Amino acid sequence: MKTKLPIAMSNKHIHLSKEDLEVLFGEGYELTKKKDLVQPGQFAAEERVEIVGPKGSLKVRVLGPVRKNTQIEVSVTDAFSLGVESVIRKSGDIEGTPGLKVVGPKGEVELDKGVIVAARHIHMHTDEAKEYGVKDGDIVSVKIDGIRGLTFHNVLVRSGEGHKLEMHVDMEEGNAAGVKNGDLVEIIK
User: CB 3.0-4.6 Å disulfide test: which of 10, 47, 113, 178 passes with 148?
Assistant: First the structure.
């Protein structure tokens, strides 16, 4: 059974709905791909927006393609800087999360929900999940070796046909563990 897999750090970013994209950038606007991400079909866009909370604001990159609902992913420190509660959730689970204002070049959107601190997670194709002895929705622990080594608990497995093997943590978690994108980590369950 396999145990090693690559890790990647995720910086603050936003996923936009088609409706919000058009308010922020103009009717019929299409995102401009900057670079592909590891997850199939996902990309970092050239576009950036400003997110504005009660205490401060941050510039964030837009990730594509568009989604059903707008979602903003920040770190705990980012949430504090913005003045919003840091709610740890899996991607897509935005009910009961804080909202804020998003400002683009053509307009702005006032969100009543959608700001999350993404729960640490592992993407795996269904075939890879079998090789690792896990399934979608499992919670595992992951060991990081090195001078700042540690063990991450409560790591969500996200398995499906459209996933590719990679663990995601936010910048704070990655920096605390002293990892770089592509470093190998180990599932210890």
Answer: 178
Query: What is the SS3 assignment for 173?
Result: helix
DSSP state of 156: E
* Whole-number Å distance between alpha carbons of 29 and 188: 45
Spatial distance between the Cα atoms of 144 and 152, rounded to a whole number of angstroms: 8
pLDDT at 1: 84
Q: Encoding tokens for residue 103?
A: 């400002």
Q: Which amino acid is at 166?
A: E
Does residue 50 surpass a pLDDT of 90? yes
Cα–Cα distance, 74 to 152 (Å, whole number): 19
- The helix or strand, by DSSP H or E, that contains position 27, with its residue range, turns out to be none
Give the pTM. 0.94
Distance between start and end Cα atoms, the chain: 12
Comparing C-alpha atoms, which of 112, 43, 118, 111 is closest to residue 78? 118
The C-alpha atoms of residue 117 and residue 174 are separated, in whole angstroms, by 14
Q: What residues does 89 pair with on adjacent strands? A: 118
